[in-house]
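Attaching the record inline, Q. Sequence:
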Amino acid sequence: MWLLHKQDDRQSLVVMLTCQFVEIMGGAEKQCLSLSRALEGRGENVIVLSSRVPGVALDDGAIGIRVIRFWCPSPPQLAGRHLLSSLLWAVQALFWLFWHRQHIKVVHAHQLRINAYVAAVASKFLKLPSVLKLGVGGEENDLVVIGRRKYLFGKAGVDFVVRHASRFIAISKQIEDDLKAHGVSPFAIASIPNGVDLTRFAARIEETQAARAESIKDAAVFSFVGRLSPEKNVLSMIAGLQSVPAPKRTMVMLAGEGPLREAIEARLQSTRNPLDIRLLGAITDVSGLLHRTHFLLLLSSSEGLSNALLEALAAGVVPIITDMSGARDVIPFENYPLFSVSGSEVDIAVAVRRAYALDPAVWLEWSRRLSQHAERTFDLESVAMRYVELYRALSEPGASVGLRTTRETSQVNQA
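Structure, as predicted:
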């Protein structure tokens, strides 16, 4: 239903804004879904505003979270030549927020695209508290993306978002620095990491850690979990793996779909290599795969706080990872041996050689350290509680939304 039922009118809503939901299941969508479920478990009344595009069949009843979908001819986050679709979605979302404004506690945008403008307009004109969570840091951070010409509004649009959004979520130190570089006041930044549902991995982790420490003596299992797309650097990753003579039986599992699948298949058919590389397609629950995996491959050029990485740590998988935005936030150990300097084939090959050379006891030590760190830092229930507290603070009558820009902060300090 496009409008809420009458029984919802008495409840305070947490409204999630995500341009697509479930049908593509990228990192932002996975976090939106898992956080929404965790918030519902803590008594919050969550509803997701997303899109419906032609040719995509959806079963929202199986999600367990209420979803309102606004029709548009193409995915609204694309903008550019699809800008009319973006604006159509934004108008529908804003009308919905206006109609239900008296029953909304907070508006929470996941990965900033056109939804960032919707949230900022809702704060400015509807007086609704807004939380904007960036998905990616570095040169291609979300504020850079929404400031491009394809979103029409340019720098003025980004300045509007920065000035009127109530809080920005930094999931990594890199993103916090990016926000400050765009003029966001430290008072308007909340540092909250992504969360992972540890219950999916807790029951089997000790058993499988011991089994994998034994099996790595004779065989190594590498896994990639994610979209088979250029930004994930999958082709260079495969080339780097194939360039290293395998000292033991090696299996490489690629879990995911994407535009590079055909190119990957063509490469595997055209190259003779002893590695057993398998394309598994998309997997709904990766816990079974991760419990068989020694090394996760995460060699992107840009990430936020990767869901695949958090799930891998929770399962005791030791990652080979590019030293990029967010990586040091997740793996804060100075002596961690499997950082790749870059995503080049040469640097990937160096990291793979170090992985092969790990003694089983050393692998087990890192597996335990990383899984314990994930339990302490990225537990989804703890993350959800931090959002509950943030929503409560922003929605209390007379609550201050903080100083949103560094200019405002400077003016107060001078006074």
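The chain has two domains: 6-195+381-406, 199-377. The radius of gyration is 22 Å.

More tomorrow.
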